[in-house]
Design brief:
210 residues, 7-stranded mixed β-sheet, 7 helices, binds S-adenosylmethionine
Length: 210
């Protein structure tokens, strides 16, 4: 995953996706408190820390070996002064009053994404923003039977669905959930504002606010 996803983040995250969110770019430039949940090896966390040196970043993942790797990469990238990586699941990561919480290609991997959504809501500042980046998918299976959808369904069957089924609740959303199902899960956590802020052929970028 560390080899597969970050090319897309380098191409889009700080130039297209964050600027598409309401007011987030300026908050990050001024200095904001950020959580990157399900951060894996921390590629997205480190990219944001490089682009927004006045902000503080907390990367969380439930997989200890990934967090070890993320710490090494932060050290090598010279951003350890503003990035902390900790082992923590999405439903109980520490901290409060985050200005910005980001999930990159991981909500659908979680056993209980609705539980994660509720925890994000609790941990956000009242005017905070949750960005959910998910693999691009339409709501109908038939509309996903294209080269990108076929790759995602195949990978999902091998990685994402088993990962989710191995956890509590075990929803098994899969990488091709589509915006309608994602919206239901995200708003079930208590978010009242939801929109598709951006998209690429490979990603949906969803914005949720309290
Ligand atoms: C497809 S990888 C994406 C990693 C990273 N966000 C990226 O884009 O490179 C999914 C990540 O979600 C993490 N994950 C799965 N379930 C989780 C949970 N319940 N709490 C925290 N992290 C979780 C996995 O350990 C993995 O690092």
């Amino acid at each position: 995953m560390r080899a597969f996803f970050p090319a897309n983040y380098i191409a889009n995250l700080t130039t297209n996706w964050i600027p598409a969110l309401d007011g987030v770019d300026s908050k990050l430039r001024a200095g904001a408190k950020v959580a990157d949940v399900g951060c894996g090896h921390g590629a997205s966390t480190i990219l944001m820390a490089q682009a927004f040196p006045k902000s503080r970043f907390f990367g969380f993942d439930y997989h200890p070996a990934s967090i070890e790797r993320a710490r090494e990469k932060a050290q090598a990238s010279g951003v350890s002064d503003r990035v902390i990586f900790e082992v923590a699941p999405a439903k109980s990561y520490p901290g409060s009053d985050y200005d910005f919480v980001a999930f990159f290609d991981c909500l659908h991997d979680m056993g209980d994404p609705a539980g994660g959504a509720a925890h994000v809501r609790e941990s956000l500042a009242p005017d905070g923003t949750w960005m959910v980046v998910e693999p691009f998918a339409n709501d109908d299976v038939s509309a996903n039977l294209n080269p990108v959808g076929r790759i995602y369904y195949s990978a999902s069957r091998l990685f994402c669905v088993p990962a989710s089924l191995s956890q509590e609740v075990g929803l098994g959303l899969g990488a091709q959930a589509g915006e309608a199902r994602l919206r239901n899960i995200i708003t079930s956590g208590g978010f009242t504002r939801f929109r598709r802020a951006a998209e690429t052929p490979f990603n949906l970028v969803l914005e949720a606010r309290p």
